[in-house]
Amino acid sequence: MAADSKSVKMADGAVKSGGSAGQAAKAGTVPTLEVKNLSISFGGLKAVDGFNVVIEKGQLYGLIGPNGAGKTTVFNLLTGVYKPDTGVILLDGKNITGRKTIEINQEGIARTFQNIRLFKELSVLDNVKVGLHNHHKYSTLEGILRLPSFYKVEKEMNERAMELLSVFDLDKECDYKASNLPYGKQRKLEIARALATDPKLLLLDEPAAGMNPNETAELMETIRFVREKFNMTILLIEHDMKLVAGICERLTVLNFGQVLTQGETSEVLNDRRVITAYLGE
Predict the structure, then answer these.
(1) Is 95 exposed, middle or buried (0-12, 13-18, 19+ CB in 10 A)?
(2) Other C-beta atoms within 10 Å of 2: how many?
(3) Local structure of 115: helix, strand or coil
(4) I want to staple 65 with a disulfide (CB 3.0 to 4.6 A). Which of 130, 164, 254, 268 is the partner?
(5) How far, in Å, CA of 273 to CA of 281, rounded?
């Protein structure tokens, strides 16, 4: 999706997501995410080439760029869908490079997708409970025999899932099929399910895709709320420059798999190179 010149240049009017949670960490603290020289090729083509980023605890960080720039590939590398050819991924200082997707999720990275991926035929409640299995477990035998330990864990999961649904004002729809929720609420449910895994870093892949302006405005408030309520570090990919300018504190811009520029949101969105990359001038 191409950005128009007004949307790219609007950063001067950006409303910073404030608070101490968004400020750079003090010297000596470990960032939530540090990526060094990350690269991957497909068929000889460098999809991501020497990607570097540092995201401090509590930051709301944006990854932007034209279509095909490599943004989703970066997310796939961070979550273990792809294994990098080179580079290091550190989560809270721990090297998770090349780990399996489930292992990376257990370490603390959760993700949503551009095309919402819910279990459409499951209830709203059960969708959130899926995310809770990282921390609430019972054996297959306990489940088959319905032992007391099974009911204890199920009760804990139901209570925690309802707490999360209540945060997003979805508790009244807990018994609905996920497919019966309106689009905006499906996005909230996907975020709630991701948070159920108790992540340190939440990756949002084009969360405003397919939303109308009212839904996008509500989504902005939801993302701010998640950051503050859960003290969450968030990295998002987004093409809606109004949303990016309104909530992201820092940005990295990718173009043809390489970092074009990084920095404060208003400075980056007014960088002539960024405008040229989007508009092809």
Answers:
(1) exposed
(2) 11
(3) coil
(4) 254
(5) 10
H or E element at residue 260: strand 258-264
Mean pLDDT for 246-258 is 95
CB 73 within 8 A of CB 43: no
pLDDT at residue 132, rounded to an integer = 84
Angle of helix 183-196 relative to helix 124-132, nearest 10 degrees, comes to 30
- Answer with the residue of higher pLDDT: 273 or 16: 273
Q: What mean pLDDT do residues 208-223 have?
A: 91
Give the per-residue pLDDT at 16. 38
Of 20-24, 118-122, 269-273, the one with minimum mean pLDDT is 20-24
Which two three-digit tokens encode residue 14? 């950006």
Neighbour-count burial for 24-37, b at 16+ CB within 10 Å, e otherwise: eeeeeeebbbbbee
- The SS3 assignment for 132 reads helix
Question: Hey, what are 172's tokens?
Answer: 């009244």
The DSSP secondary-structure symbol of 21 reads: G
Please, what is the average pLDDT of the chain? 85
The reported pLDDT for the residue numbered 24 is: 41
Q: What's residue 127's pLDDT?
A: 93
Alpha helices in the chain (DSSP H): 5-9, 71-78, 101-107, 124-132, 140-145, 148-167, 183-196, 213-229, 241-247, 265-269, 272-279
Q: Name residue 1's beta-bridge partners.
A: none
Kindly give, in sequence order, each residue whose CB lies less than 8 Å from that of residue 38, ignoring residues fewer than 6 positions away: 48, 50, 51, 52, 74, 77, 84, 86, 87, 88, 89
**Three-state DSSP state, 55:** strand
d(CA 179, CA 118): 8
| Integer Rg of the chain from CA | 19
Helix (H) and strand (E) counts in the chain: 11, 10
